[in-house]
Amino acid sequence: MPTWADQAKLNSTPIAWQWVCLGLIFLVSLIIPWIVSPLWIRIVTEIFMWAGLAQSWNIIGGYTGYLSFGHGAFFGMGAYVTGIAMMNLEWPFGVGLLFSGILAALLAAVIGYPTLRLRGAYFAIATWAFGEMIRQIATILDVTGGAFGMQLPPFLNLSFFYYVMLGITGLTYLTTYLLLERSRFGYKLLAIREHEEAAEMVGVDTVTIKIKAFALSAFFPGVFGGIYAYWVTYIHPDSVLGAQITDFMVVMVFLGGVGSLWGPFLGAFVVQLINRYLWLVWGEGTFYLIIIGAAICAVVLFIPNGIIGLLEKRIFSPRGALSQLRKLIKW
Amino acid sequence: MLLQSHELTISFGGLTAVDRLSLAVEKGSVLGIIGPNGSGKTTFFNLVTGAYAPDSGKVIFEGKDITGLRPHRIAQLGIGRTFQIPAPFSKMTVLQNVMVGTFIHASTMKAAKEKAWEILERVRLDEKANHQVVNVTLEDRKRLELARALATEPTLLLLDEAMAGLTPVEVKAAVELIQSLHTRGLTIIVVEHVMDVILSLCHRVVVLNYGRKIAEDTPDRIVNNQEVIKAYLGERYSARN
So what's the ipTM on this one? Predict the structure, then answer.
């Protein structure tokens, strides 16, 4: 009879292998600023930011099963709050970031309390409306510079922003791993996603747990928004509160694999790389959005479990690909 | 009395699903609830577990008024339930499903895992512990329902048609399992259509019809009660005995 100790032994080999991979990726990430051109430092920094944002969305959308379409608002709010903290209050950058994150989490708790009672499309609509509301507020306020936006003190140090983004993204993934993959909290979230009534019947305080998850998923976008604002030094409502911010988070998570730890990273990597490549080829424009849109349709239709799902089926090894193909044509 | 309901009533639109229902369960006993489809059996469970709040009436558990408490609070107080149609956490393993139930008492993941293994062994589901729920049979899903409810360490267990859809052999195994739980001191309320199960398990039986209690007695006297035969059992069943 297998006991769970035996089970742990069985699982230990692939886990150790994963840690080695992760360590290597981390080491490579550390030296990237010394070996690539400034353009590529910029692109990799963006990839890290999007990987972190996608994971944040994954906490509420993937693990908990509540699709938030207003998540960009937390990012934009973080950008403005850090800007205001640095310009008007003359706080240091780090304090501004922390303040942005906490404020975003608090706002999420306040918004979540009434809206997390709604399910499916209704929650999506409510959060979308919330996102629009924040954008309108940023457009009319004086302190945010209204539609003209806001200028932050310039700090032109690519490596600095690269390492800050790497650190916070690492923290996002570490938090997800510890709090969602390996703890009671994470199991409760999955239970809520899979069957909310049954979860309540076995003692899960669904209201509190959902609010905590929503607040956690808003904290990191708040921080990322702050870093982004200081990095690009100029923000306005369309650049940090536009609908495309949320859209990209959702798209990356679905492409990579919804509800998985590494799916959002893979999704962000692929989407942002294609995005930037097309931008380099065609220059400034919106044509690349059409290609990305078509790619998303293909993903949702043909690989609903995302890239992670494909990896698990070993479709990228020749033998695995063949067996999948056979299954597909029933041969 | 472990659980009492006083004049419990709830209506949905014009339909009174449970109508001034008063009943009591003695500690350590097994109570059966029978009645035609739509007679309010499952609705009664939903009222006791807090899924619905009653329009009027009270639910008293261990001397405390638990009417209108949220379901997770009631689960923490010691009432466990299974669903008529199994409601597992599908994209999790059998073990993980049960672990979620143990979280009420287990404060670490290690303790939760150990407790969950122990319960899976008790309901003989330990060999499927690491299977995804989508890959297990209906019988195993019914066992999983039970295991997950037991994981909360309830003092009162509500079983909603735990045998529906099982083969006679599987029913026999399930009855033995429930009997073993009862001998361990668990108080149980059983909603069931299979009369043999009711006869072999229950100390007392309550019969519902249109949300009202039409009879309450020992199982052997219930099957000869004229009103129960008319409303639920039918003439054929009484002739067989």
Answer: 0.91
